[in-house]
Structure formats: structure tokens, C-alpha cells
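Example S7 (C-alpha cells).
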């Protein structure tokens, strides 16, 4: 559903103000809701000069490290096909490097301890060689694999090589054929094509510009090579929001945005983490995923609200799938910390997400499980929300939702009980006796002696 003219005008004003205040040669942005691009805006020119060609939603910018998310999805597709396991050591598929002992999962989540940058010249500003050249330069590890989060561009060069070896063709060809074309992302390329912004550096103390170089990064390309547009990256934001169009299963996407390693910054509370290729943020109780991008001359941001639960992270009502993409052609700026969030907050304030009305549709046979239960003397309440049995409050203590597997077998979906079995135990007459949750007994009355409580119940009873 398109936004109102008043909302569009306000968003245009926010974007124009951001371009002026942050001294950006050009900036282009888009907002996604319900799997669709509902607003886009652009300010400035491709070369940052008056009279130059104006940028728009079809102008290419370099996305930088957002490239890594495409490589990660390509790797997970290989996993889902059974071509690899995340616990596999890199050497099992790509022998002959100093990265033999790191796992694929560790590479995806930046926990392999691999050095952040190359051992050669500044790779972001100089043409790159092939994989053998990168290996020969002495790329290795800085930390024991699995010890900690350590962001690594060279680690994603290794993942790009992994894709090439297993698919037997260049990594971008795989990304194009398996991801971009099915999603209709026809303006995403490894080098600028058609209308494209010039990468620029803005002098910190004067209103003058310096062009940044553009090149083929070679083996390092999977870490930050791709160019794209607001229109195309909005489709990738919709993908992250759940519109995967059979490119990836919903379960695998959910696995990728699970926090694997926190981003530990001394003196700061943990708000960021990294999943399998995706950055994940917890902002005031709201879960977001996406990625940032930075290359000489360009900055980029992709951020999507993942869930309906918790807050919205910006003080405004929103919905799962609301997302923002933003590009600018400057090397250094604080714009990514402020402007994307301001655009998303503005949309949510002026046009809250539609609310789906509640309708009855449950089955009365679940009533035998609803109501009060006791774990020992502790009181818990079971209720049904849609198809899920909810025991306690998810996110608080050991509260969790449960999905029915079959008959009286359920499985936990949240927190402590994620993946743990819940069984409904019945009496001979078929009535419900008690619940067995990962060996814990939940009974209708505290320590019901007829419910086979492990350890027994003192025969003298309560006194």
C-alpha cells in the first residue's frame, strides 16, 4: 500500500535535511513494508556537483559489505542441498590455505579468528589478484577459532572461494543465477553499469571533493564488490523480511538471523551481534537484522524489523518486515547511525502499520490443556495463541511457545525450551493427567501425587 502524499513529503524533507547536514554528495533511500518498496527518495548528483546528473532509485551505488549477505545465502543453499555441513572445516572443501582449521559456521559468523584485512596493500583501493595470490600473501588467523567475534573481510573471501569450488564457477555467477534473477534484482552487478554514482571523499574542513578509485577486488570481491540500486536492495530487504520466493526456506533464513556472537565493545552494553552472514541488533526490545556497507567513496545500510514482539526500537508503532535501505557516495560520515533510523521512525509515526483484526478460529479441543498448571509449587498459565501453546511468558524466565509435532507431542520454540519436547500424558480414560516438559512435571495441582512426580510426593501431603 503506497504512503500518503503528506508522508512522502515529510520523508523527502528528512532525506534532504540529512543530505545537507551530513554534507553528502548524493544520498538515495527506500522504505519497505509488506514486502514492497513503499517510498523512495534521492537528493544530489552522481558526481556531487551542481548541474550533474541527478540520482534516483535506479542509480547504482556500491553496497560494500552488504555483499557478504549474498555470499552467506549462497553458502546456506549449499548446506540445505547437503553439499556441506556448517561444522565442516574449510580444508575439507578448499585445501591449501592457512585457514584449514576454521569451520564454515565460524567464517559465516566472523568467529573463525581470521585476520580482518589482507596481508598486502589496502585492498579496498587497489586491484586484487586471484585466490592463489591471496593465499600466497600469508593470510591467516589472529585468534583461536571459535574464541570470539572478530570481523573479517578475508574470511568472506574464503567463503566466496568455497562457493566457487563447490559450484565450479565464479561466485558472482552463482549469486546472479540463484539469488538475483529469481528475486528480480536486475540492477545488481559486480562493477558499475548504467547510471552509477561516483565514489567521493568529502574534505573534512572544506566543501571540496576527491574522487575515489574503482576497481575489481579479485579474490576479495565477495567481501564488498557489488553495486546495486535502491530498487534492487529493497527487494533484498523484502527477502530478509520473509519474502524469500523459494530462494531460501523460512527455517534457514530464521537460522541465519539467530545471534551467534555478540559484538563486544569495551564499556558499552551489548546491542549488536552477528548471525550467519547477517548483523543482528537488539534496540529497545526490538530485533532488527541487516548489514552495513563501507568502501572508499560509499556507505550503505540495510535494516529490517524482524518480529512483532517487543518494542519497535524507535518509539513508533511498526510491524515485522518494515525496513530501510540507504546509500551515499561519501567515504566517511556518521549518517548511517542517524538517517536510516529517522526515516523508518518517520514512516511509523505518520503511518502506523495496519492492524490485522482478531477473529476466533481456535479448536475447542485445546481447552483441556489451557489454564493453570504447576511446576512444583510454582504457578504457570497455559494459553493458545493461534496454533501455538504458550506456557508462561516468552522472553520472561522460561516462558515459551510450543508447536504441535503430532498428537500429544509438542516442541519448544523460545528461550530455554527451544527444541525441547513437551508431551501430554493421559489417564486410562483419555483425560489429561500432566505435562512432561524436558523431564519437568507440570500438574494441575501442586505436586499432584497421581501425576508420577519424579522423586515421589511425601505420603503425608501438605501440612
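Recovered sequence:
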Amino acid at each position: 500500500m503506497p504512503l500518503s502524499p503528506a508522508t512522502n513529503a515529510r520523508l523527502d524533507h528528512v532525506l534532504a535535511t540529512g543530505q545537507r547536514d551530513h554534507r553528502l554528495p548524493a544520498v538515495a533511500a527506500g522504505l519497505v513494508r509488506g514486502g514492497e518498496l513503499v517510498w523512495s527518495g534521492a537528493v544530489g548528483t552522481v558526481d556531487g556537483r551542481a548541474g550533474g546528473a541527478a540520482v534516483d532509485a535506479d542509480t547504482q551505488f556500491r553496497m560494500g559489505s552488504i555483499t557478504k549477505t549474498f555470499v552467506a545465502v549462497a553458502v546456506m543453499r549449499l548446506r540445505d542441498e547437503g553439499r556441506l555441513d556448517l561444522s565442516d572445516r574449510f580444508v575439507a572443501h578448499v585445501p591449501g590455505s592457512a585457514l584449514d582449521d576454521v569451520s564454515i559456521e565460524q567464517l559465516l559468523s566472523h568467529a573463525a579468528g581470521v585476520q580482518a584485512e589482507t596481508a598486502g596493500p589496502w585492498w579496498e583501493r587497489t586491484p586484487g589478484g586471484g585466490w592463489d595470490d591471496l593465499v600466497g600473501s600469508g593470510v591467516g588467523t589472529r585468534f583461536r577459532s571459535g574464541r570470539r567475534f572478530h570481523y573479517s573481510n578475508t574470511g568472506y573471501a574464503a567463503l566466496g572461494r568455497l562457493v566457487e569450488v563447490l559450484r565450479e564457477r565464479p561466485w558472482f555467477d552463482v549469486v546472479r543465477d540463484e539469488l538475483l534473477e529469481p528475486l528480480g534484482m536486475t540492477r545488481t552487478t559486480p562493477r558499475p553499469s548504467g547510471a552509477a554514482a561516483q565514489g567521493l571523499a568529502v574534505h573534512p574542513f572544506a566543501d571540496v571533493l576527491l574522487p575515489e578509485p574503482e576497481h575489481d577486488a579479485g579474490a576479495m570481491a565477495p567481501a564488498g564488490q557489488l553495486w546495486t540500486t535502491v530498487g534492487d536492495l529493497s527487494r533484498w530487504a523484502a527477502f530478509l523480511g520473509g519474502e524469500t520466493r523459494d530462494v531460501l526456506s523460512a527455517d534457514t533464513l530464521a537460522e541465519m538471523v539467530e545471534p551467534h556472537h555478540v559484538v563486544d565493545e569495551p564499556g558499552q552494553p551489548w546491542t549488536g551481534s552477528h548471525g550467519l552472514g547477517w548483523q543482528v541488533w537488539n534496540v529497545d526490545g526490538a530485533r532488527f537484522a541487516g548489514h552495513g556497507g563501507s568502501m572508499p567513496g560509499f556507505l550503505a545500510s540495510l535494516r529490517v524489523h524482524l518480529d512483532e514482539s517487543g518494542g519497535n526500537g524507535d518509539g513508533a508503532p511498526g510491524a515485522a518486515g518494515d525496513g530501510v535501505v540507504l546509500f551515499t557516495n561519501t567515504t566517511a560520515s556518521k549518517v548511517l547511525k542517524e538517517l536510516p533510523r529517522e526515516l523508518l521512525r518517520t514512516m511509523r509515526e505518520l503511518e502506523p502499520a495496519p492492524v490485522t483484526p482478531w477473529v476466533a478460529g481456535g479448536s475447542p479441543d485445546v481447552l483441556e490443556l489451557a489454564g493453570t498448571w504447576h511446576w512444583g509449587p510454582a504457578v504457570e498459565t497455559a494459553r493458545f495463541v493461534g496454533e501455538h501453546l504458550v506456557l508462561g511468558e516468552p522472553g520472561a524466565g522460561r516462558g515459551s511457545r510450543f508447536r504441535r509435532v503430532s498428537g500429544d507431542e509438542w516442541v519448544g520454540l523460545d528461550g530455554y525450551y527451544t527444541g525441547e519436547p513437551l508431551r501430554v500424558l493421559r489417564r486410562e480414560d483419555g483425560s489429561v493427567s500432566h505435562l512432561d516438559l524436558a523431564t519437568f512435571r507440570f500438574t494441575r495441582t501442586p505436586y499432584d501425587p497421581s501425576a508420577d512426580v519424579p522423586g515421589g510426593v511425601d505420603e503425608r501431603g501438605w501440612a
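Notes on this example. The mean pLDDT is 93.
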